[in-house]
Design goal:
The complex is a heterodimer.
Chain A: H1 2-7, H2 13-21, H3 25-34, H4 39-52, H5 56-65, H6 67-70, H7 74-85, H8 89-99, H9 108-117, H10 131-145, H11 148-157, H12 161-165, H13 169-193, H14 198-244
Helix pairs in contact in A: 3-4, 4-5, 5-8, 7-9, 7-14, 10-14, 11-14, 13-14
Chain B: H1 2-18, H2 23-31, H3 59-78, H4 89-100, H5 102-115
Helix pairs in contact in B: 3-4, 4-5
Classes of the chains: A mainly alpha, B mainly alpha.
Chain lengths: ~250, ~140
């Protein structure tokens, strides 16, 4: 009865809102599968369905197809944009840089959310951010300026200095102590027993292993630090705009 | 040859010691109805989990897994190791080796080990701090 009724009617937004409010996933999907409507409209509601029930990849596919309808609903666009501030990086990139293009950024709030996501494209001085986000953004912006190869080189010259370059003095101290300790032990055992003694060989193996880890680790740490700072900034931005720009799915 | 036999005996002894089937544990489980649910920080597995299904197992990788097993079940408890990370450095190293191979996995694991100091929690962003304890969440790559 339910399917037959939906076959001969337009999509009932109020009814879908009711299904959505009551979390009736199967009924929602069944209604859409049997609905007679244009592809744009179906994609629009499928995107809502996937958004609500947590399938971001499918959401992005349907949202990209329903752009003409999404353009008319700025509140919904704000709702989606807030959600994608703090998501998997490739999904956020697709939303902000592919789907939410200039034709969809029709009001100041959408422009602001797009700017907040793509902030590193602009010089630090030209960006106006809320006070609450400035500290995290500055840390993120500084992280974008650090070069992994420089950190690796620093650590190759003096162990741990790559981490000092990242402003991590405690990590620098522990790295220097470990590599320095093994270096000193190797030197002492070579001085006392000679280079062919098993103890010297074991010490030298430990020293070279930790030295290598220190260099490659510093290189990787710069990349990791950038991801962490970006994530922290976007988490903060997401919670800030959740309160500042109220919105809903229906 | 003698050293190989000695190593084998040591290894078997450690396996026997690590099996906590003593009476007190059984009594506690019976009376308090505590079930032995799988925990996130499992330490007791001998092999890297992915290696179990494979037909060929690398000698170096297996040797490394054995060393990790010995460390986690004997030495770690002896030195009262208290790692600063939610997934301990040794477990993290095992998982990284499983995912990324022996070389890169070891580098990443030992890199975490070199950061594992009590001050390390001050140098990570707030979202990397655990909500439940004074520990650091392991980075997700």
């Amino acid at each position: 009865m339910f399917s037959i009724q939906s076959l001969f009617s337009q999509i009932d937004n109020a009814f879908l809102k009711h299904l959505s409010d009551n979390n009736l996933k199967i009924e929602y999907l069944s209604y859409l599968q049997n609905a007679a409507s244009s592809n744009d409209t179906l994609d629009f509601y499928y995107s809502k369905y996937h958004f609500q029930f947590g399938d971001d990849s499918s959401f992005l596919v349907h949202a990209a197809r329903a752009k003409s309808l999404l353009k008319r609903d700025t509140s919904l666009l704000i709702h989606y944009s807030k959600h994608f501030l703090n998501k998997e990086i490739h999904q956020s990139n697709e939303w902000f840089n592919s789907i939410l293009d200039t034709s969809l950024r029709v009001n100041d709030q959408l422009k602001q959310l797009h700017l907040v996501y793509n902030l590193t494209q602009y010089p630090l001085e030209t960006v106006e951010l809320p006070l609450q986000l400035q500290k995290d953004y500055q840390l993120y912006y500084r992280a974008t300026k650090k070069k992994p190869i420089v950190a690796g080189l620093f650590s190759a010259i003096i162990p741990g200095t790559g981490l000092l370059y990242l402003n991590k003095p405690r990590a620098f101290a522990s790295n220097l102590a470990i590599v320095g300790g093994f270096g000193y032990q190797t030197y002492e055992s070579s001085r006392i027993f000679g280079w062919q003694h098993p103890l010297t060989i074991i010490n030298a193996a430990f020293f070279s292993g930790f030295y290598l880890v220190n260099v490659i680790g510093s290189y990787l740490e710069v990349k990791k630090n950038l991801r962490e700072r970006q994530k922290q900034y976007l988490i903060h931005a997401s919670t800030y705009y959740a309160d500042t720009y109220p919105s809903s799915l229906y | 040859m003698r050293s190989i036999v000695l190593l084998f005996v040591l290894f078997q002894t450690s396996v026997l010691f690590s099996q906590k089937n003593d009476l007190s544990t059984q009594l506690i489980e019976t009376f308090l109805h505590t079930s032995s649910e799988p925990q996130t920080n499992q330490k007791r597995s001998l092999m890297f989990s992915k290696s179990q299904g494979k037909e060929r197992v690398g000698v170096v990788k297996t040797g490394f897994a054995g060393l990790m097993y010995l460390y986690q079940n004997i030495f770690s408890e002896q030195i009262s190791a208290a790692c600063m990370y939610e997934i301990s450095c040794s477990e993290y190293t095992k998982r990284q080796i499983e995912d990324k191979g022996l070389i890169l996995g070891s580098i990443k694991g030992f890199h975490q080990l070199m950061h594992c100091t009590h001050g390390a929690i001050e140098e990570v962003p707030p979202f990397m701090k655990s909500n439940y304890s004074a520990k650091i969440k392991n980075s997700v790559d």
